[in-house]
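ok so for the tutorial part 2 we go from a plain amino acid sequence to predicted structure tokens. step 1 is just haveing the sequence, like this:
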Amino acid sequence: MTEKSVIDPIVEALDRPGRITVAGVPEGYEAMLLAELATRRGQLLHIARDDSRPARLAEALAFFAPDIEVLEFPAWDCVPYDRVSPNVEIVAHRM
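step 2 — the prediction. this is what the tokens look like for a chain of 95 residues:
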């Protein structure tokens, strides 16, 4: 009898058609799970909970799946309809 991994139910869901929403992934499993998702499904969207995580996640993804292209879209540094324009570096990075 083989022992089931914590992510086995999620990986099994990957084989079913349709959209998948995954939340509450334990710390450290994100990159491994996203690499598996990208390998099985192709394109995917991950929304990080703060500004420090995207760079660390991209680094971890490079370990688990070096052939995956990671595009980062940093958050705007202003609110909609504000009189202040977004930072030029953020605009350039998002383009």
